[in-house]
Amino acid sequence: MSSSGGVSAADVKALRDRTGAGMMDCKKALTEAGGDVDKAIEILRLKAGKRIEDRGERVATEGTIQTYVHHNGKLGVLVEVDCETDFVARTDDFIGFAREVASHIAAAAPLWLSEEQVPDEKREAELHIFEQEAADKPAEIREKIAAGKLQKWLSEVVLLEQVHVNADKHEGKTIRQLQHDIAARTGENVLIRRFERFVVGE
Q1: What is the pLDDT of residues 78-114, one digit of tens each?
Q2: CATH class of 62-114+158-199
Q3: Which residues of the chain form CATH 1.10.8.10?
Q4: pLDDT band for position 3 (50/70/90)?
Q5: What is the largest CA-CA distance in the chain?
Q6: Which of 184, 152, 178 lies closest to 165, judged by CA?
Q7: Are strands 62-69 and 191-199 parallel, antiparallel or unpaired?
Q8: CATH for 9-51?
Q9: What is the Cα–Cα distance from 158 to 111, expressed in whole angstroms?
Q10: CATH 1.10.286 matches 119-157
Q11: Is pLDDT of 55 > 70?
């Protein structure tokens, strides 16, 4: 906060760095919050819904590695889920979340963790196939159909976009939504860092 009671450009930039929200939105939120950063983040969240996440200066350097091994011993998963404190990393809720993710990976066989990890050439190859499939449709909707099919494909191969295989237990939520839920419950930054799926003979 500046001494005149206004909001300084440095404050606005710091809030933008933390949330990814626009400069004007950050300035309005800080002004409304009287310079209280945490309150400003809440204001941004309420206005923009789930799109605003507090990345904070907080780094997820604690966490847990959990496993899933199928009863026949031919399929196994290792997953690393990170949080900010050792206290949270040892809670049953956090460990349970990591185990749920591991069992999901075993069943759903995702190829990538996030959309950003999908190679451009793979994405383009799939889009080309979907464009060919939509070739007999009217030109004005062809692109939309192909884009829709691409999004559906991503939701099938990207871990964070997949609906948990135990849809009834998890109310049809995606892994990303479940990750948001555990972050909200713990009040910490929770990240699925990496995973590996092993199948005998593959």
Answers
A1: 999 999 889 999 999 999 999 999 999 999 999 999 9
A2: alpha beta
A3: 9-51
A4: very low
A5: 69
A6: 178
A7: unpaired
A8: 1.10.8.10
A9: 6
A10: yes
A11: no
